[in-house]
Amino acid sequence: VLNGILEFLLSDDEIAQKMRSSFIFLVFPMVDIDGVYNGRYGKDSKPVDFYSDWDVNSKPLRPEIRVIQKVIDNFATQNNYSIFIDLHAPCSHNFNYFYIGPSEKLPIRYYMNQLRFLKIFERNCPELYCSTDYQDPEALSGFIKTSSWYQYYKYGVLSMTAEISYHKNRFGEYMSIASMRLFGKGLAKAIYDYFKSLRCRNI
Questions:
Q1: CA–CA separation, 170 and 94 (whole Å)
Q2: Selection from 127, 119, 133 nearest residue 194 by Cα
Q3: How would you label 176-193 residue by residue, b for 16+ Cβ within 10 Å and e otherwise?
Q4: Average pLDDT over residues 74-99
Q5: What is d(CA 144, CA 165) in angstroms, rounded to the nearest whole number?
Q6: Which of 11, 70, 181, 203 minimizes the number of CB atoms within 10 Å of its CB?
């Protein structure tokens, strides 16, 4: 998926060129490098899952997360930090969906902007995603330890987690390497369309 995002952003496409001139992208290609090297799936890693080691009230246990937080914190102080997307993989039986913030704990405008982004993404990638495919956590206790909450709580940025299936999408088709790249391309274009819909300058 990340390959698809970067391939599009580095292409000669007119939108990609506009994005390169308007945005700064901060990319972390891989977090659990040791886990990937050793063939581990990454979910529920001990002593704490990488995704759940972002508690704003405590120091991360994982040195990788501590480094990433420091880089993001420095980036946010020098730039107009606006959006964060964490790329994940769900359980094998799930199809593509997004994990967004709890509706009852977020400002309504922020929550609606999350849904706006999902609808825009669906328009850019209708063969792989439906905008009703998202999870809104009922409890805040677990969510406040995630990377998505950290970005919202500290910086108020639009923050979501994309869960990309290793199995089938909601239409029953297997997620191939090509379809994952297409998913990434759709995400990149959705970012552009989202900010254009907000009538941001210089786009």
A1: 8
A2: 119
A3: eeebbbbbbbbbbbbbbb
A4: 87
A5: 24
A6: 70
Rounded alpha-carbon distances, angstroms, from residue 154 to 49, 69, 72, 122: 21, 11, 11, 28
Q: Of 73-77, 84-88, 169-173, which gets the smallest average pLDDT?
A: 169-173
Rounded to whole angstroms, how far apart are CA atoms 81 and 151?
10
- Residue whose entry in the numeric block shows the structure tokens 């995603």: 129
Of 77, 65, 88, nearest to 150 (Cα)?
65
CA within 13 Å, CB half, 21: 10
Tokens coding 160: 């979501």
Model confidence band, residue 165 (pLDDT cutoffs 50, 70, 90): confident
Distance CA 34, CA 187 (A): 27
Q: What is the pTM of this model?
A: 0.90
DSSP, residue by residue, 80-100: ---EEEEEE---TT--SEEE-
For tokens 């369309």, name the residue: 193
| Contacts for 158 with CB less than 8 Å, ≥ 6 apart | 82, 83, 84, 110, 113, 114, 117, 194
Residue 54 three-state SS: coil
